[in-house]
Amino acid sequence: MRQVKVGLALGSGAAKGWAHIGVINALERAGIKIDVVAGSSVGALVGAAYASHHLPRMETWVRSFRYWDVIRLMDLSWRRGGLLRGDRVFSHVRRLVSHEKIEQCSLPFGAVATNLSTGRELWLTEGDLHQAVRASCSMPGLLSPVEWNGYWLVDG
Fold first, then answer.
1. Which of 97, 105, 82 lies closest to 36 in space, CA to CA?
2. Tens digits of residue pLDDT in 93-109
3. Which are the catalytic amino acids?
């Protein structure tokens, strides 16, 4: 008998994307085992935390947000093609999710991004975990694009 594999696809949605954490917790309480996870934008961020077993730490961090905490995380700059650099947020994420490579995650993980040159979707399934998530979160005009293997990538 073939065993069913469950894949979890997490989408974008800015602050609303934090609801993914609650959905994952509900799936776990229901006894549903996730075998592979992929995400775009905030879904990639939450998916990376889940795939590397750091979701509880991320949930604690997100639940602690207050208005001024969010304001302090914003680092304004037009120098790199976006209103925000994203360095403050993603340096904090780096401390929460300590894995360096996608291949180090406990579950297979992929972050979805878009190649700015071609407009084509890319699935980032190996390499620097934090750069892949950062690329998937890079909304044109808001967060600066990320260079990946000679291409400029933005939100998937």
1. 105
2. 667 777 789 999 999 99
3. 41, 155
